[in-house]
Write a structure and sequence with these properties.
Blueprint: E1 2-5, H1 6-18, E2 22-26, E3 31-35, E4 39-44, E5 47-52, H2 53-61, H3 67-92, H4 102-124, E6 129-130, E7 133-136, H5 139-152, E8 153-156, H6 168-174, H7 188-192
Parallel strand pairs: 1-8
Antiparallel strand pairs: 2-3, 2-7, 3-4, 4-5, 6-7
Helix pairs in contact: 1-3, 1-5, 2-3, 3-4, 4-5
């Protein structure tokens, strides 16, 4: 078991969403790009483009992308959904015992890594090289490594410092009731107007 703080583990999970998972070169030297879980940054002879995953899905649904490219987009979408599900589940179960959730979280993250790898293979082949170009899935080992760490880690619970407030019972004990002390309970005003009992 590896001891790790929950905040550090959550930071590692967030990194899987913001770091590039794939570097690719389009066949014929037409362009190159970085592929993140939620978008692609691509440079071609036509210019620089930022293509979101939603736009790729629109290309598939409209028929602009088909065949291996469409399958690659769908597999990439599955990987991103699994990754978001893992992070969302981890956040929702923040105050639960980590031992009860680590198996599911690690499986979701590992599934995302496998889906990303399958997406690259569907587009470029088993050797990450083909007519479409070549690819280096640099983020897949990171995602699988985070999944392994998530499963084998022992999370240290965060300690929060709470301000100490005086106990209400102590305040009540410090305040004495005039009727309980054997002193006269009359106020100074009542004592000043007390009638004379002498005849």
């Amino acid at each position: 078991m590896y001891r790790i703080k929950r905040s550090i583990l959550s930071a590692l999970l967030a990194l899987t969403l913001v770091l590039p998972a794939n570097i690719y070169l389009i066949g014929g030297g037409l362009g190159a790009g970085l592929q993140f879980p939620l978008l692609r940054y691509q440079q071609t002879y036509l210019g620089t483009n930022i293509i979101t995953l939603v736009r790729d899905i629109e290309y598939v649904s409209s028929g602009i992308l088909g065949g291996r490219s469409a399958l690659s987009v769908l597999l990439w979408l599955c990987g991103t959904l699994l990754l978001i599900a893992a992070i969302g589940y981890f956040v929702c179960m923040w105050y639960e015992d980590y031992a009860s959730i680590r198996k599911l979280v690690s499986l979701l993250i590992a599934g995302a890594g496998v889906a990303y790898l399958a997406s690259v293979i569907a587009q470029y082949g088993l050797l990450f090289h083909g007519p479409a170009g070549f690819s280096v899935p640099v983020g897949v080992p990171l995602i699988l490594g985070v999944a392994w760490l998530t499963y084998h880690a022992e999370v240290e619970e965060e300690e929060f410092c709470e301000e100490e407030y005086p106990d209400e019972d102590d305040d009540q004990e410090g305040t004495s009731d005039p009727s309980e002390s054997g002193e006269d309970a009359l106020s100074p005003i009542d004592q000043s107007v007390e009638p004379d009992r002498t005849v």
